[in-house]
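Case study: Cell wall-associated NlpC family hydrolase.
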Amino acid sequence: MRQRIETNAGRRGALSWAGRVTGVAVVALVGVGIAPGVASARPHNPSDTQIQQAQAAADQAAAQVGQLSAQLAAAQAQVDAASAQANIALDAFQAKQAEYEQAQAASQAADAAAQQAQADLDVARADVASFARTSYMSGSTSSRITAVLTSGSPAQMIERNALLDAVGGDRSDVLDRVTVVEHQAEQAQGAAQAALTTADQLKTQAADALASANALETSARQQAATFETQTAAMQAQLATAQQTLAGLQGQRAASNTYDQQQAAAAAAAAAAAAAAQQNEPADDTPDNASDAGSGSSSEAEDAIAAASRWIGTRYAWGGGSLSGPSAGIGIDAGVVGFDCSGLTRYAYYQAGISIPRNSIAQYKALPKVSRNNLQRGDLVFWATNTGNANTIHHVAIWLGDGTILEAPESGKNVRITSMRWSGFIGGARPSA
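Here is what the predicted structure looks like once written out:
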């Protein structure tokens, strides 16, 4: 009912010129009726040429308003596209950051292996030094012939020869161990260096992706500022055109009304007002009702409850961790909150379900749900190209009844709002 009242009010504000003339006539007659018998000054009556010129000016203003509206629509489309591309770039940065962290972990593991190999090498070298000292002190480094010739008896000679064979074998084993450990150390250090190189490359790629995301988001904000300026200009242009046209028409109507008899003018004004009211079309447009949601699993309800705790929290580009809001990056550096996929990931983690960090990965990894089968707690996704999942730039939680819970964009807060079907690529069900 409230919407219908507002609609009727809007229509009453757009009555035909006859209705507006009637309103001016009533005002004029009331003014004349205040002091009966006293001649008042005749209102200025614009010439036909003045009226035609004013009408032309009003038509020109209306045309300019139409042009501005078209420009504003185009600017808004550019803002939406730039914002979507910025979110895609941020998604790419988050993926590269995850790869960098994995490479960094591999580097640390390889470095630990290298350190262990070096420690083993040190032990082996200590064994070699010990063997050398022992051999020197025991005289085992002397010639085998000397050892044999200095034997006191054949039995002693045989025994010393066997002992030298055993000692020589131990020495060979130690030297072999040193060689193997040295090779292992070199391999481990090489793997560590390769992992570090890979990590540095990934880090550079992540930084480039972030710079691209920042540039796209900055462009989107500049376009939004242009959009706001154009909106203000359009409203001012429209107000000027309406005031000009209404003023000139009011002067002509007041002049015509003055020439009529007060009683006849009052009767005509009353009849015109009654006719205008009767001819005003009724607003019989029914209110659109959304179908109720079909419910979902307990995990989905837990996720909704977890996300709802943070309604009103700032959007933070790149923000959101498994434990709650976190500092954003880029244009939202220093802002603590969630981005869209950060909120959905946090919510389902609280429900005991782990999903990927970024929106594209979430969509690809989870079971798909069609529009007609959406349930409370399902994730809904938007893309610049609904035939290509790699263009996904936003995700939200479906609440049913045509509403969603989302972290919308920079400068806004986590909120519950109406579902936007434009750009909808599909749904996914983490609780499946």
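For the exam, be able to explain this: The radius of gyration is 42 Å.
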